[in-house]
Amino acid sequence: MISNETIKNTENLENLDNSEVKDVIIDVKKLNLKYGDKQVLFDVDMPIYKNKVIALIGPSGCGKSSFIRCLNRMNDEIQNTEVKGTIIYEGVNINDLDVEDLRKKIGMVFQRPNPFPMSIYENIAYGPKIHGTKLSKKEKNDLVIDCLKKSALYDDLDEPNEPNKIKILQKSALKLSGGQQQRLCIARCIAVSPEIILMDEPCSALDPISTLKIEDLIKELKKDYTIVIVTHNMQQAKRISDYTGFFMNGNVVEFGKTDELFNNPKSKYTENYIKGIFG
Ligand SMILES: Nc1ncnc2c1ncn2[C@@H]1O[C@H](COP(=O)(O)OP(=O)(O)OP(=O)(O)O)[C@@H](O)[C@H]1O
Fold it and tell me: How far is the CA of 64 from the centre of ligand 1 (A)?
């Protein structure tokens, strides 16, 4: 059994230069998480940099999803969960924020596309409505179209015989392909103006072409949003992320710039994992 102290690379965070430290949007310090008696995160520290893509990699069950669920307090919904440590979002401890406001600012996209069983239009308009945003019909139409464009779904929905796009958007979201549904979920997420989007293996249920579309979209979205993505696909982490955190047994073994972590890993555990020796 490998001890937590052995695998932790305590120098990780010290290697990051000061200019980057200024752009921390979420700062996680000594995060510990237990489900009942089972501890799944151990003293996790991680800075999340604004307008960057942060990929989280590591073997199955090492705590990646549990970690991102802490960032918008989704674990609050799970009974017997104990979270210790601090998560500071723009200078405020997330426990001091209203949880609905927090989840508006830190949205989430899940492994399987989960559009609501309603129209494409209503899927996007729903979030602002439940958050009490009053919009005129035109403002609502503009918002829906803007979100569809930002999520690279708008042009996919053209129909040669129907020039009225708003009519096309009345179709059920469940009729879209899996990849389109996932982009709709991203559109739904950005409709409430988040700052951060958490993505838990968003491409794992998609074919390679839909996966590449989501990857292109992620690269585009980071101009406006910060993205934290859990992925099992190391090529994907390399292609799209600026920073990568490697988790093992509930510890962050290594965190740093993606190029450096993949080309010059500091820990032998990281090296063995990215070489496919275990995992
Ligand atoms: N609600 C829960 N109750 C109890 N244990 C849980 C719960 N959710 C996750 N776990 C356990 O916590 C550990 C970490 O799980 P988690 O899903 O965070 O890992 P992961 O790295 O995201 O895994 P994967 O890559 O397979 O999705 C696992 O041992 C898992 O069984």
Answer: 8
CA distance 266 to 254: 7
- Say if ligand 1 is within 6 A of residue 64 CB: yes
Q: What is the reported pTM?
A: 0.93
Nearest-angstrom CA–CA distance, 133 and 26: 26
Residue type, 28: V
CA of 62 to the centre of ligand 1 (A): 7
Q: How far is CA 157 from CA 11, 61, 144, 165, 209, in A?
A: 49, 38, 13, 8, 17
Tokens of 53: 């893509």
**Of 39, 40, 42, 108, best ligand 1 pocket probe by most atoms within 8 Å of the beta carbon:** 40
35: Cβ below 6 Å to ligand 1?
yes
Provide ipTM, 2 decimals: 0.98
Amino acid at 274: I
Domains of the chain: 4-114+195-274 (3.40.50.300)
Q: Answer yes or no: is pLDDT of 17 > 70.
A: no
Q: How many CB atoms lie within 10 A of CB 158?
A: 10
Report how far residue 68's alpha carbon sits from residue 108's, in angstroms, rounded to the nearest whole number: 9
Q: Count other Cβ atoms within 10 Å, centred on residue 204.
A: 14
